[in-house]
Write a structure and sequence with these properties.
Two copies of one chain form a homodimer. Chain A is α+β, with helices and mostly antiparallel strands and 411 residues long. The first copy, chain A, contains twelve helices and 16 strands. The first copy, chain A, starts with 8 loop residues before the first helix and ends with a helix. In chain A, 59% of the residues are buried. Chains A, B: Keywords: Hydrolase.
């Protein structure tokens, strides 16, 4: 056993700082949109680090990068990793932490002369954030065969309209390894929580049991613009009021369902948006999430029924379209147990929790046993240059990853 | 008596078309913002028409124009009129109709060689719409002494920042007649309804009993922007949800109060307004109106109490400010009766109703007996290039005005 093996915390933290220099923003944080020049520089730096660890590096046709630390036997590798692209105002840890902690695990094994039975693979995936190309988690989605390669290469950048395939060529990351049939033993992703729960509770490790399901719906109410002073209530077709009532219903629904039902109306736009003019139209989004797929579908059905009823009450037209619809993902029970065991063996307090955000790991859950490890995000800040996780928490999470990978790769 | 005297409908309709050419929009309607070049041209045209009727024209220091048709005795005049400025996308009738119908009454009396005991005065007032200078109804407000002249002259245009006083000089309408102490027997304003009630009910004449009270409030909720997927409901400070719930309450309040309680949330803006980000802030307006001032104050108090309670529930900050607060105006009962009698004597069906919009007449209600006559607005369309009232309805309204002015001026 290697219960006393520990990663080099200073080396891990230094590597996070170094990677963060690529696309660094003047006031802190990083802007490293997928397949930008900054992303190329960060990829080059990371690949150099992989090669310095004598890892075998492969790049696939969608630009995902896989570095393998050979095992004693030629078996499917135990994989870890995440992404190194960021949103326009990202921090140092989102994604990067999972990749660099994986490399730190390999560096630790290498320094200790320790070889596992199965190979250990550390990967980073193209365009996880979705801030430059849609959908998000595109690289891992293509990797597991969830999206045809040709379709992915033809996606256009939201900033300058460039084709993803051309941008891959431009930055030198259109690789030759095939996509669609990954051969991997299992996948474990280490990530910051991006939410406030661990920080609030003062816990070191989130044992992630799965990813909650997501239903995004765009609702458009079309009424009639009229004078707010001269139009009796009964003769109105007030699109804004209909939208506000549906938003209030979404809140009421989340309270009534309780538990892990989330409801967010993040966007709501009225036209013409004037104090004394009844709104002609209202465009709103409703983001519903739940770890239980059946409950989520029930909530979504209730929401649409309510929207139809309220639209009819106000005499306004309702149209709606789905912007996203993902069923919940359950991670592998044995691997989840392994994460929890590793944390407890290091004396770390844990919480079993779902992931509220999407991650590359959920793509792997389609093809192999998968789990995730969370560390706290101070105040839950995410996609924010003030994103922060304390150094000791970063080191604790990487040591849990080390132990899980060892246990898995040695079996 | 002059029960058989009737205005010349064709002449009235032609004058509406002619005035509508100043500031005409390509697809119909007019853009004649106060003190613009188009407004100057329309003023010049109207003053020429007044002079052609041998009326004595006076311009006061805020640019209001008064044309007097002499009476048999030198008594305070019975006044009528409205405004000839329009919103950016106005129609042919809003304001213009009241002015030109007044002049048509004088033309009819003149053609019939008919002179009344008291003079009849036809006026148009500066900046009634408030589309270029705030507040609206500015000219009549200054005229009755409700706003100091110096303050009004120092108001800046919302489009180009020009001073109102300078714009008056520029277009040649900074007159010498004093403001603040009007000496007038009474005031009757003829106007399109700007609402759907008469059109819906198939009625010719609205007998306006007063102007409803108005409370405009701007509410700002400030919460915290967070990830919609990773932030539990209990840890949110969702400014958007707080605003939506207050809007829904405003609707519920209008239904509960019933009668003439109106509630409109015309403007609601979220920041950052993204599908998966909890709103950091929400800016909304609530427009409450009622003909009963005490009930309106009660509604406003309930609204603010609700906003405070909901803000506390969501852990968001609330700030609010009043954008407008006008008590209801009651018109003169005898003059209102006179309007109703005139309509009935011409076989026209009437409805007693409040005015939902503000009008110059409400300023006169402070200083003399005042009433208004409404004609239907098709579909209630107002401040819209498709604003429309049928020719026969325009003629009917002007004949009611003729009879009311005759009765009043002959007494």
């Amino acid at each position: 056993m290697s219960a006393d093996l520990r990663i080099d915390g200073a080396r891990l933290l230094a590597s996070l700082e170094e990677l963060g220099r690529h696309g660094a923003l003047p006031g802190g944080g990083t802007n490293r949109l997928a397949l930008s020049d900054a992303d190329r520089a960060a990829r080059d730096w990371t690949v150099a680090r992989m090669r310095a660890l004598d890892m075998a590096v492969e790049i696939d046709a969608i630009g995902n990068v896989f570095a393998t630390h050979a095992g004693e036997e030629d078996l499917p590798p135990v994989a870890t990793g995440s992404h190194i692209d960021t949103v326009r105002t990202g921090g140092l840890y989102d994604g990067n932490y999972g990749v660099l902690a994986g490399l730190e695990v390999v560096a630790t094994l290498r320094a200790a002369g320790r070889r596992t039975r199965r190979p250990i693979q550390v990967a980073f995936f193209t365009n996880e954030e979705g801030a430059r190309f849609q959908p998000d988690m595109l690289g891992s989605l293509v990797h597991v065969g969830g999206m045809p390669l040709e379709e992915a290469l033809a996606v256009r950048a939201v900033d300058n309209g460039a084709l993803l395939g051309e941008e891959l060529l431009r930055i030198g990351y259109a690789g030759s390894a095939p996509v669609g049939r990954p051969c991997v033993d299992s996948f474990v992703e280490l990530h910051i929580e991006q939410g406030p729960v661990l920080d609030r509770e003062g816990l070191a490790i989130g044992v992630v049991e799965g990813v909650q399901g997501i239903c995004w719906t765009e609702l458009t109410f079309t009424g009639r613009s009229n004078h707010a002073g001269t139009t009796p209530m009964a003769l109105r077709q007030d699109a804004g009021m209909a939208a506000a009532r549906v938003a209030a219903f979404a809140h009421e629904l989340s309270q009534r369902y309780g538990g892990r039902q989330l409801a967010t109306v993040g966007a709501l736009t009225l036209q013409p948006n004037l104090v004394n003019v009844i709104a002609q139209s209202a465009l709103m989004t409703v983001d519903l999430r739940n770890t239980d797929g059946a409950v989520l579908q029930q909530a979504q059905a209730e929401l649409l029924a309510c929207a139809r009823r309220i639209a009819a009450e106000h005499g306004v037209l309702l149209s709606h379209r789905s912007l996203a619809d993902f069923a919940p993902v359950a991670f592998d029970a044995a691997l989840v147990d392994s994460v929890e065991r590793a944390a407890h063996s290091q004396g770390l307090a844990t919480l079993r929790m779902p992931s509220g955000a999407g991650h590359d790991a959920q793509m792997f859950a389609r093809v192999c046993p998968t789990a995730m490890v969370f560390v706290p995000s101070r105040d839950g800040l995410s996609h924010n240059v003030r994103e922060f996780t304390a150094p000791e928490q970063l080191v604790q999470g990487a040591n849990v990853l080390l132990q899980v990978l060892l246990e898995r790769a040695d079996r």
